[in-house]
């Protein structure tokens, strides 16, 4: 079955261009012209990925992203914007977008990015149900991560994580006790050079801390190593 992509863009020429090229690449494509319609289609059609413009009528892309994440929709979101605005980039990723592209862009670039995101998702889910001799989870104090099932628990409660948040958490727990630089995390989790913007890592670390730390100002799991990066460790006294 073809992967389904939802394109939300009020510029008809761009929406048509993306629809044509994505269909040529083998994707099923549905489109929306405003944020409200896009949000409703995301909920009803359950696409595999959403290409979401930032500037939209009715609901802008930031608000669509925010509302979908609030409703526990973890579908990967590739956000598009005509503004090369650092604030918009960080805010969009803060609210749960998985990737970000600035207009103008080539359709080939968008398709490559879409395929990369879906490839990672497929790799993460294709191993579900696989039988392995090794333990199928990683436990660090109250934090439990199940790589095969793409799930993480804290105090036995299932964590609501975006795909990128889960990938980052998994990489941290697999490298427990190691100091990881922001560049290392950017390369390992995002799989390409995100214009060297390591603040994206900080944004996602902040999100993870909100979900697993009792006090985000004094984290006991994800420690900041000043001037270097981050380290995940077992809380003292556990």
Provide the structure class.
alpha/beta
Biggest β-sheet strands, sense, barrel: 5 strands, parallel
Strand order of the largest sheet: 2-1-3-4-5
User: What is the total number of structural domains?
Assistant: 2
Low-pLDDT runs: 126-134
- Within CATH, the superfamily of the largest domain carries the name Response regulator
CA-atom Rg in angstroms: 18 Å
CATH architectural label of the largest domain: 3-Layer(aba) Sandwich
> What integer is the average pLDDT?
84
User: What portion of residues belong to β-strands?
Assistant: 15-25%
Keywords:
238 residues, Rossmann fold, 12 strands, 4-stranded antiparallel β-sheet, 2 domains, 5-stranded parallel β-sheet
What is the strand and helix layout of this fold?
Blueprint: E1 4-8, H1 12-24, E2 28-32, H2 35-45, E3 49-53, H3 61-70, E4 77-81, H4 86-94, E5 99-102, H5 107-126, E6 138-140, E7 143-146, E8 151-154, E9 157-158, H6 163-174, E10 180-181, H7 182-190, H8 199-212, E11 222-225, E12 229-232
Parallel strand pairs: 1-2, 1-3, 3-4, 4-5
Antiparallel strand pairs: 6-7, 7-8, 8-9, 10-12, 11-12
Please provide a written account of the structure.
The structure is a single chain. This protein is of the alpha/beta class and 238 residues long. It folds into two domains: 4-126, Response regulator (Rossmann fold, 3-Layer(aba) Sandwich); 138-232, Arc Repressor Mutant, subunit A. It has eight helices and twelve strands. Strands 2-1-3-4-5 form a five-stranded parallel sheet, sandwiched between helices. It has a four-stranded antiparallel sheet with strand order 6-7-8-9, covered by helices on one side. A hairpin with a 2-residue loop joins strand 6 (138-140) and strand 7 (143-146). Helix 2 packs parallel to helix 3 (61-70). The chain is elongated, with a radius of gyration of 18 Å. Residues 126-134 have low confidence and may be disordered.
């Amino acid at each position: 079955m073809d992967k389904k992509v939802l394109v939300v863009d009020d510029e008809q020429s761009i929406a048509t261009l993306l629809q044509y090229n994505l269909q040529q690449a083998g994707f099923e494509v549905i489109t929306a012209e405003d944020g409200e319609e896009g949000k409703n289609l995301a909920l009803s059609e359950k696409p595999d990925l959403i290409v979401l413009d930032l500037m939209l009528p009715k609901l802008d892309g930031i608000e669509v992203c925010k509302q979908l994440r609030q409703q526990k929709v973890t579908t990967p979101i590739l956000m598009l914007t005509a503004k090369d605005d650092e604030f918009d980039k960080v805010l969009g990723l803060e609210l749960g977008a998985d990737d970000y592209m600035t207009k103008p862009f080539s359709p080939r670039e968008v398709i490559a990015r879409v395929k990369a995101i879906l490839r990672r998702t497929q790799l993460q889910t294709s191993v579900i149900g696989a039988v392995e001799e090794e333990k199928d989870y990683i436990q660090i104090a109250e934090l439990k991560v199940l790589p095969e099932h793409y799930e993480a628990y804290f105090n036995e409660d299932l964590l609501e994580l975006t795909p990128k948040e889960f990938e980052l958490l998994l990489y941290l727990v697999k490298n427990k006790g190691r100091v990881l630089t922001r560049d290392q995390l950017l390369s390992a989790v995002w799989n390409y050079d995100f214009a060297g913007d390591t603040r994206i890592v900080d944004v996602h670390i902040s999100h993870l801390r909100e979900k697993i730390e009792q006090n985000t100002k004094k984290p006991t799991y994800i420690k900041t190593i000043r001037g270097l990066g981050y380290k995940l460790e077992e809380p003292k006294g556990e």
